[in-house]
């Protein structure tokens, strides 16, 4: 099977009347032949379940890397991610970290931006976690 057949590209759905999205897509339409992968919330833990760092941007990158590991294990790649929710314990930390988060995103995901939601929560299950990311992907 060639690379084009293995890819399950998602069609962007960005109605002009909603304004141009920045750092996300308003919607993505999955191909009929794709399989839906639901990725559980991932935090910045190591394989033993310990938080690897207290730095916000490092936690974001580790959680994102864990999401991507699940997607890759299912036969997908970053561009197969259709939806992502990022839970943070501080919106202000997220805002303050935007330049670093942009670099992390581009290095790990590239120019693909799924439909995304950012939610501030009072706490996350893992002690000392400040970021948790879950996702849905459509893999070939």
Descriptors:
140 residues, disordered N terminus, alpha+beta, two-stranded antiparallel ribbon, 4 helices, 4-stranded mixed beta sheet, 60s Ribosomal Protein L30, Chain: A
Lay out the secondary structure.
Elements: H1 3-6, E1 11-12, E2 28-29, E3 35-42, H2 56-73, E4 81-88, H3 91-96, H4 98-108, E5 115-120, E6 131-139
Helix pairs in contact: 2-4
Unreliable stretches covering 5 or more consecutive residues: 1-8
Instruction: Give a quick account of the main beta sheet: strands, pairing sense, barrel closure.
Output: 4 strands, mixed
Number of helices: 4
Oligomerization category of the chains in this entry: single chain
Strand order of the largest sheet: 3-6-4-5
Estimate the global geometry from the Cα principal axes. Answer: globular
Can you walk through the features of this model?
The protein has helices at residues 3-6, 56-73, 91-96, 98-108, and strands at residues 11-12, 28-29, 35-42, 81-88, 115-120, 131-139. By secondary structure, it is α+β, with helices and mostly antiparallel strands. It has a single domain (34-139), classed as 60s Ribosomal Protein L30, Chain: A, CATH 3.30.1330.40. Helix 2 packs parallel to helix 4 (98-108).
At a glance:
By secondary structure, the chain is α+β, with helices and mostly antiparallel strands. It has helices at residues 3-6, 56-73, 91-96, 98-108, and strands spanning 11-12, 28-29, 35-42, 81-88, 115-120, 131-139. The chain has a single domain, classed as RutC-like (60s Ribosomal Protein L30, Chain: A).
């Amino acid at each position: 099977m060639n690379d084009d057949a293995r890819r399950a590209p998602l069609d962007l759905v960005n109605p002009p009347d909603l304004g141009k999205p920045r750092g996300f897509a308003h919607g993505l339409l999955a191909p009929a032949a794709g399989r839906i992968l639901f990725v559980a919330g991932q935090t910045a833990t190591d394989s033993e379940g310990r938080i690897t760092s207290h730095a916000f941007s490092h936690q974001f990158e580790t959680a994102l890397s864990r999401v991507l590991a699940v997607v890759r294990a299912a036969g997908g790649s970053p561009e197969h991610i259709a939806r992502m929710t990022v839970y943070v314990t501080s919106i202000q930390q997220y805002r303050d970290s935007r330049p670093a988060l942009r670099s992390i995103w581009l290095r790990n995901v590239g120019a693909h931006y799924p439909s995304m939601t950012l939610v501030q929560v009072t706490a996350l299950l893992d002690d000392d976690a400040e970021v948790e990311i879950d996702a849905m992907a459509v893999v070939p």
